[in-house]
Amino acid sequence: xxxxxxxxxxxxxxxxxxxxxxxxxxxxxxxxxxxxxxxxxxxxxxxxxxxxxxxxxxxxxxxxxxxxxxxxxxxxxxxxxxxxxxxxxxxxxxxxxxxxxxxxxxxxxxxxxxxxxxxxxxxxxxxxxxxxxxxxxxxxxxxxxxxxxxxxxxxxxxxxxxxxxxxxxxxxxxxxxxxxxxxxxxxxxxxxxxxxxxxxxxxxxxxxxxxxxxxxxxxxx
Length: 221
Ligand code: ADP
Ligand code: ZN
Prior knowledge:
By secondary structure, this protein is an alpha/beta fold. Helices cover about 45% and strands about 15% of the residues. The protein binds adenosine-5'-diphosphate and zinc ion. Zinc ion binds next to loops.
């Protein structure tokens, strides 16, 4: 694709607490590098909306901020990364979230004869995370993400991009946001050391989005 920067590393994993900005940065990177965006949260919300068997299984767990079973999410990811648009590269946003998921991912990638090139860890303090989660607004139509405080839409309640209706995710209430942070520290944070040990970890400090994109570019291009 003309004008698309070449990538030295293309199969990427985003690691970070809920509210760290994984989805926001992932979307910027997809627009710039034309790689696939695989958000397990988005896939699961789609399954819930369609009331598929997987969606029915995930619904209550998601509402209360708990993780859905490893095998269920890993199966979705295994099928998704085998699709042709992922050959250019992809961002796994919100997966893996447990050591077991990381192992299942390695198996799935080995089958495709690929491996993760970089794990981007978004480090943000708890106070900021809670403030962001509870102020977050999502577009019903195009999945764009806004924030009442840091990234307000131009017109209240409407998406800047498509005009769609903005809403708060049910799991972004203060109580559920707190449980999700707890789940992150207990089940997902151990992956930071796991990936540091195998040399894949790149810590990306929070800052203005253009600065973060520059740091990512220095690492990937
Ligand atoms: P956030 O990163 O803001 O917590 P996500 O959209 O990534 O939000 O996830 C929303 C919910 O979907 C999680 O709280 C969890 O219930 C479920 N989920 C998403 N990804 C996974 C995963 N890899 N493993 C288990 N559950 C997941
Ligand atoms: Zn929109």
